[in-house]
Specification:
44% helix, 6-stranded parallel β-sheet, Rossmann fold, 10-stranded mixed β-sheet, globular, 459 residues, 2 domains, alpha/beta, binds GDP-alpha-D-glucose
């Protein structure tokens, strides 16, 4: 078996459970092959030189972790700038929030080149290289330009936008062309694959070689959907562990007279968090029987606070939650509990299990793992109901959730009401089907199917 090399913007120590399912799954494959994980260290060197960075390596069992510092100029233009103020908003269809500052692209290219330069001497001839996400789209092209012949695959964790939205990025052709340096491009959903194929047909006069391979820009690449899953066993164990049980019990005791609705996300504009509060307000308005008896708990953990759009979102959300509580709250009932802090991972399943309704309502999302975690945390004998945006990648798989359009406030309020009223037998039947699908396509399936497709693609 050839050695696996994983490259991602950030990495985690796969031995630590707090690293989460993805790191554990990648860690397993890295462990089996004595692999290498390469990425940014998270350190910003104040007086560093652009395009340069110190490399640190350490061992985590059989796995080598190699991390690179970035100077503040590179961090600003590559990470905050091009990655999170151009690619993240545009790939989530938010052209209105994109900041097409012309200086960002140089930093993005510089850091991808720097990654390639520092990674190259660590590579062996028969390595299999798996590069992750939008920060590193041109990395394979940079490595190929330096003579790298190894098999290389790319997985995009966020959506692939439709061609006309992609075309808003001034460097769209260069970005899409650079994907053809990979042997395999993995996307989250069939919708993403169809957007990719349409783009390369329209802009690159692509020909479809077979079901998975397309030829354009003088190269051939395999493109397939690999919907990412969660580590079902790990999350089930976490659900049964004492911290989660304690959380569940204390929530049930605290809210013994109420039904709980819950949302847990990074505070990101793609997650449809204000839309969720508006729908909850509408629920209280249209279905007054929920006043005094339903509480919405929203955990929105801080993220990318230094990008402007995130500060605006925080302000909007605080205003919205305050107004619902002000307009509807009673001395003994607060309709919305909003927490802008990270909750310990061990408590997350307990929170999910205590909620009768899980609200996962992104405006656009590559997959959305919270949807899957919510389902797995439920008691199969008395499960809660998942209300899921049709614009989450997960909606392609999780058809037995109540699928909603987060832009339709009234429709979403009606679906929440339907969830609150759903008879036990229907809840159980839906939950069972959802569990089957989540179990079948877990994170191990995802990793194995990507890596085996990569072996065939590079053959
Ligand atoms: C990207 C794509 C794709 C959230 N709040 C807390 C917390 N979380 C955990 C959740 C879940 C994870 O973070 C979030 O995963 P998502 O999939 O929902 O979203 P992104 O972070 O945007 O991830 C996404 C994913 O990549 C994988 O490919 O699904 O579409 O955008 O595990 O539970 N965890 C803790 N405290 C919190 O407050 N401990």
């Amino acid at each position: 078996m050839s050695r696996l090399v994983v490259v991602s913007n950030r990495l985690a120590d796969p031995r630590k459970p707090a690293a989460g399912g993805l790191a554990v799954a990648l860690g397993e494959a890295l462990n089996q092959t004595g692999g290498l994980w390469f990425g940014w260290s998270g350190t910003v060197a104040e007086n560093g030189t652009p395009g340069e960075g110190e490399l640190h390596t350490r061992q985590a069992g059989p796995v080598t972790l190699a991390t690179l510092d970035l100077c503040s100029e590179d961090h600003h233009s590559y990470y905050q700038g091009y990655s999170n103020s151009v690619l993240w908003p545009v790939f989530h269809y938010r052209l209105d929030l994109a900041d097409f500052d012309a200086s960002y692209i140089a930093g993005y290219r510089r850091v991808n080149k720097l990654f390639a330069r520092k990674l190259l001497p660590l590579l062996r001839d028969d390595d299999t290289i798996w590069i992750h996400d939008y920060h590193l789209i041109p990395l394979a092209a940079e490595l190929r330009a330096m003579g790298c012949k190894q098999r290389m695959g790319f997985f995009l964790h966020i959506p692939m936008p439709p061609p006309l939205i992609m075309a808003a990025i001034p460097q769209h052709e260069w970005l899409m062309r650079s994907l053809f340096a990979y042997d395999l491009v993995g996307l989250q959903s069939e919708a993403d694959v169809s957007h990719f194929k349409r783009y390369v047909r329209n802009e690159g006069s692509a020909e479809e070689v077979d079901d998975t391979r397309v030829r354009a820009f003088g190269a051939t690449v395999a493109v397939q959907a690999f919907p990412i899953g969660i580590d079902v066993e790990e999350f089930t164990r976490l659900t049964q562990a004492s911290e989660a049980v304690e959380t569940y019990e204390s929530m049930r005791a605290e809210y013994s007279r109420r039904r709980l609705l819950m949302g847990i996300d990074r505070l990101d504009y793609s997650k449809g968090i204000p839309q969720r509060v508006r729908a909850f307000r509408e629920l209280l308005d249209r279905y007054p029987e929920n006043r005094g008896s339903s509480t919405l708990i929203m955990i929105a953990s801080p993220t990318r606070d230094d990008v402007n759009a995130y500060a605006d979102l925080r302000q909007e959300l605080e205003g919205l939650c305050g107004s619902v509580n002000g307009d509807y709250g009673e001395l003994d009932w607060m309709p919305v509990r909003y927490i802008h802090r990270m909750v310990a991972r061990k408590r997350v399943p307990g929170l999910c299990r205590a909620a009768s309704v899980g609200l996962v309502t992104p405006l656009r999302d590559g997959m959305n793992l919270v949807a899957k975690e919510y389902v797995v945390a439920q008691d199969p004998d008395d499960p809660g109901v998942l209300v899921l945006s049709r614009f989450a990648g997960a909606a392609e798989q999780l058809k037995e959730a109540l699928l909603v359009n987060p832009y339709d406030t009234q429709g979403m309020a009606d679906s929440i009401q339907q969830a609150l009223q759903m008879p036990l037998a229907e809840r159980q039947a839906r939950h069972q089907k959802l569990m089957e699908r989540i179990r079948e396509h877990d994170v191990h399936w995802w990793r194995q199917s990507f890596l085996s497709a990569l072996q065939s693609a590079g053959a």
